[in-house]
Design goal:
- The complex is a heterotrimer of chains A (about 200), B (about 190) and C (about 190).
- Chain A is about 65% helix and about 0% strand.
- With about 200 residues, chain A is an all-alpha fold.
- In chain A, helix 3 packs antiparallel against helix 4 and helix 4 crosses helix 6.
- The longest helix of chain A is centred in the C-terminal third of the chain and has 30 residues.
- The two termini of chain A are about 25 Å apart.
- In chain A, about 50% of the residues are buried.
- Chain C has two domains: about 50 residues; about 130 residues, no CATH class.
- Classes of the chains: A mainly alpha (about 200), B mainly alpha (about 190), C alpha+beta (about 190).
- Chains in contact: A-B, A-C, B-C.
């Protein structure tokens, strides 16, 4: 039993990684991975919303009538998203500004709705908790690693502090859309390669 | 006035293209560009829903939500979800031909980041009603343009030799990277 | 029928609880958000008028569009420590890569400095309009000067358009300031 529950958690990290394998939530990934600080902010915000939404749905699934489940899911997602948005605007205004419209967009992040519709409604609390933690971590590590590459090589800084030597000319193509798309392509290709080799 | 509107449309369609410059609406984008027909269907659905959603959310926000701005996210997503449901029901009954063309894409549109994003941006940029509609049209056209370009490319890709691990999504994203470089060239078009 | 009522009621109750929760979070975040906005403006104004003691918005000039599509968002009257007063005009103009939002400082018949708040100019080139090396030349510049790039205004190398745009903005807004604000016409 314990092994099974742990699997619910670990699957989100690699085998069923929401971004690289299931291919969801891409918009936010590319937009906020230009800076490590943005990526960390987004990971925290996203994780908060995903975990709360999945947990709430699993707790209340008995009283959620099937016909109106979508509007109720939307409320369970929109409320934590608004909380994240308000808290960021109040206590981390510069971060909130640099992430722009992507914080409110967490509400239509395909990963959240996708997981709730496909999973949360049918499973119990513990399974949901594990799944949401795994997915959140899976999302976070990809977006943070991507941002580290893009910021260090694309701007020469890490968390805003210059880390590359003065002579290094930043490859700003990395922080722009083409670079982002290409990095994701490489990431997915790499992960495909690793997983295929395993099986 | 007219030149302002023209600027907004060109900016929204090309210079500030939702997909290639702003990274928005990627999930549906990658999925739908598998076929050119699907892309066309999706474009119509997007233009249709985006324009109506913009109009309604603009009115709701500017007329009814003074002091209640913190409810923006909830109200807007609800409005869009409800709108899509209603449109689906109406089309199914009254205009079955259109329903057949847009059919499966309609429910997908609720989670299309772009619909919601544009409604937010209109409020953020303080656009007037007409400006919001123009922006909505521009972004939808831009999205349609992006869809058609990639769908065309993917059709060609099907017949090409692709390195093993790049098969599937990696090559799609690489293609997008190249198209994005082209779009970057449009920056500075609008003064 | 009963099912519909039950479903509708469930949605309604959950929506209400959600809204109340948000209203509660809003009640303590909203003052903080206002405070942040105020601090940003205050810090920006102090970059231009370091010896400011107080500043207030002049209500008559909100969102006024003037020449060249320059949009004056608002105007602040700034009281200074030596008893004098200056004016900060917060406006947007069209730069090379998009709209630029800045604070333009004026006192008597001079420009007192520029502080760029937001822009989308080219990184490394036009973006240098935010650097003091560039903007310092506008401090205490007489508004009767021609404001011509490469003559009395030094351009950023490789970013003539961005330089010209901001220089023109300072001149045009300065003209507006002289005609409407300076000279007792507040």
């Amino acid at each position: 039993m314990k092994k099974n529950i742990f699997k619910e958690f670990t699957k989100g990290l690699f085998k069923e990684n929401p971004i690289l394998i299931i291919m969801l939530g891409l918009c936010s990934v590319l937009a906020v991975s230009t800076d490590v600080s943005n990526a960390i902010g987004m990971s925290l915000g996203f994780s908060f919303v995903l975990i709360i939404a999945e947990v709430l749905v699993s707790l209340f699934r008995k009283i959620i009538p099937n016909e109106v489940r979508i509007p109720i899911f939307l409320i369970f997602i929109a409320v934590p998203t608004t909380i994240v948005d308000l808290v960021m605007k109040a206590y981390f205004p510069s971060l909130s500004k640099s992430m722009g419209v992507f914080i409110p967009l967490i509400v239509v992040n395909c990963i959240v709705l996708g997981r709730i519709e496909a999973f949360s409604y049918k499973k119990n609390f513990v399974e949901n908790l594990m799944d949401s933690l795994g997915m959140a971590l899976g999302y976070s590590w990809v977006i943070i690693v991507l941002s580290i590459i893009r910021e260090i090589f694309g701007k020469g800084t890490f968390l805003g502090i210059r880390v590359m030597p003065e002579v290094y000319q930043p490859m700003s193509i990395l922080t722009s859309p083409p670079g982002g798309f290409f990095l994701i392509a490489v990431f997915i290709a790499l992960l495909n390669g690793i997983l295929k080799r395993r099986s | 006035m007219l030149s302002n509107l023209l600027k907004i449309i060109i900016a929204a369609t090309i210079v500030d293209n939702m997909v290639f410059i702003r990274y928005i609406a990627l999930c549906s984008y990658v999925g739908v560009t598998n076929s050119i027909d699907a892309s066309i269907g999706m474009t119509f659905a997007v233009i249709f829903v985006q324009t109506i959603a913009t109009a309604i959310t603009w009115i709701i926000f500017h007329l009814f939500m003074q002091g209640l701005e913190f409810l923006e996210i909830i109200v807007f997503i609800f409005t869009i979800a409800a709108l899509v449901q209603l449109v689906e029901i109406y089309l199914k009954k009254n205009v079955p031909s259109l329903y057949k063309a847009m059919g499966i894409y309609l429910p997908l549109i609720t989670t299309n980041c772009m619909i919601l994003a544009v409604t937010f941006i209109n409020i953020d940029k303080n656009y007037t009603f007409i400006e919001s509609l123009v922006y909505a049209l521009g972004t939808s056209f831009g999205y349609g343009l992006a869809l058609l370009i990639l769908a065309g490319v993917r059709e060609r890709l099907r017949l090409s030799n692709i390195p093993k691990f790049f098969k599937g999504y990696p090559i799609v994203f690489t293609s997008m990277a190249l198209i994005a470089i082209a779009f970057l060239g449009f920056k500075g078009l609008i003064k | 029928m009963k099912n519909i009522i039950k479903s509708g009621l469930t949605v309604f109750i959950i929506a209400t609880i959600g809204t109340l929760l948000l209203a509660w979070v809003y009640s303590f975040t909203s003052p903080k958000i206002e405070e942040q906005k105020f601090l940003t403006i205050k810090n920006a104004i102090e970059e231009i008028f370091p010896n400011q003691t107080e500043f207030n918005e002049i209500p008559e000039y909100k969102n006024k569009v003037i020449e060249n599509n320059i949009n004056i968002i608002t105007i602040y009257k700034v009281e200074l420590q030596d008893g004098k007063e200056g004016f900060i005009i917060r406006a947007t103009y069209s730069g090379y890569g998009g709209k630029v939002e800045s604070l333009f400082g004026y006192q008597d018949q001079n420009c007192k400095g520029v502080y760029v708040l937001e822009h989308s100019e080219t990184p490394g080139l036009g973006s240098l309009i935010t650097s003091k090396d560039f903007t310092n030349q506008f401090i205490n510049k007489n508004l009767k000067d021609p404001f011509i790039v490469k003559e009395d205004v030094q351009a950023i190398t490789g970013a003539t358009i961005s330089s010209r745009a901001i220089s023109n903005a300072i001149k045009i807004i300065g003209k507006f300031y002289l005609e409407n604000i300076y000279g007792g016409n507040k």
